[in-house]
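Step 1: inspect the first sequence and its tokens.
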Amino acid sequence: MKKGTRISNGVTVVEVGPRDGLQNEAGVVSTSDKIHFIDLLTAAGFKTIEATSFVSPKAIPQLGDAAEVMAGITRGPGTSYAVLVPNRRGMERALAAQVDEVAVFTGASESFVAHNINTTIEGSIANFRPVLEMARAAGIRVRGYVSTAFGCPYEGVVPESAVHSVALKLLELGVDELSIGDTIGIATPNQVTGIISRLGADIPLSRLAMHFHDTHGTALANVLAALEAGVTIFDSSAGGLGGCPYAPGASGNLATEDLLYMLHGMGVETGIDLDAVVTASDFLATVRGKSPDSRCYAAAMSARRSGIKLEASAGESKV
């Protein structure tokens, strides 16, 4: 950390595992297991959980049970349950499921948007207009995802100006919050600082979130750079679950356990129980028959087998 840098005492962690994580899972996860996974995450204390997606079941069969999942979860009084919606039809289904907030998804590179949602950037934004109108009428908060903000698997380097342009268009459309995504996990701290500086000139940092993947092991370093730049909202996925089918070679999302361990060790409050997140990840690991990628998860499970609890405290790490 740079000398003299002030880090916020409070950070919001948005759990995206049930949607962004599970959508790329090859094996089918049952509806009941998804519901139990979300309930475990609710018990951990998240303020926002991205629960599922109301896209066409043909596009993402894994999330074809979105309505059933939303009907089955036990909603916590302090938790907002968000879903991804692509268009008017998806929004109609989301409203019928009584969601708390919705998210729309586009990118900063034309090739990625074409491969992902079969349209142009402008076309995707046009599709969002009725979603925003319906959200405003229902009093529902809307989040806008900007993917490939640091690089595209088809185009390579993505200019900051392209990210800035898409971000402003989404804000003009009426989104409440922007999540800036390192979809293929290639960002480094200097790039993170650069894009936040560019966006922050026109957008309040309180409306910016960062969404990192850990393909090259830089996700936590990028979080620290974003913290130092004033960002206080971060997306992560329990166990590091996820990836991107349209980004060859991209690994999973930043693991929630790893993020929480670092933040709590820095004295940054999140309101989330790290041990409870480990429990949620462990449940899903049993369902998947595969251990999560999270290093903190591995350490915590090893500690559990020894009868002790892994913790992090400001200025001191201990087992």
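Step 2: inspect the second sequence and its tokens, then contrast the two.
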Amino acid sequence: MCALLREEEYLEKYHITFCRATIYKYIDDGNIFPHITNKDLPEKGQRKREYKKVREKRAPRGRSIEERPPEVETREEVGHWEGDTVVGKKGSRARLLVFSERATRNEIIIKIPDGTTKSVVRSLDRLERRFGADFPRIFKSITFDNGSEFADCEGLERSRRRKGKKRTTAYYCHPYTACERGTNENINQMIRRKFPKGTDFDKVKPAEVKAAETWLNNYPRGILGFRSAASVFSEAVGLAA
């Protein structure tokens, strides 16, 4: 399938490239790929809706994204993440806590038992233990939405390893402005390929979540020169892949 080959291989062999819109049109027409429909495609032919920034009068749950340093916005520095949760079927409690590194697109996915602030803070505590002394330089900041699960700004920022110290800096998007966490939102769409809407995360095993994380981080990305997020991230932070 053409998606498995790199763009430069096409250029060398055929001296042509295909944009996304062309491929989707061919599939819609049904002449060239008669056995493939939009249902088989990741985005199913849908276009992104236009985001309209909304400003509410209520104060954010913590430090506003407007206070975030410019190098975070421009992705010049590795170590700045976006945080979100992916919910399952109605009535299920478990969900996925996802962290997306803005510069490298590296993803960390954690299954949490529910959508409480306690579960989110505990997950960050475990991540801090995992990365040890490297945590503050790898997680310089995390930008969250204003969901109730991220309400404990103090708990998210304070270090469990070093009493009285901060482990990261939390920023909060404006309400109803998902585009301010664009990396997170895009990668969440890829997660849905493995766990479609309606998935009961109560029944999903941690090994399945880890497999999805590994798949995402080893996926060749055009924006990274067709390198994987895992290799770019590991090289940038000096950790073994």
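Step 3: confirm your contrast with the notes below.
Residues 117-131 form the longest helix (15 residues). The longest strand covers residues 80-87.
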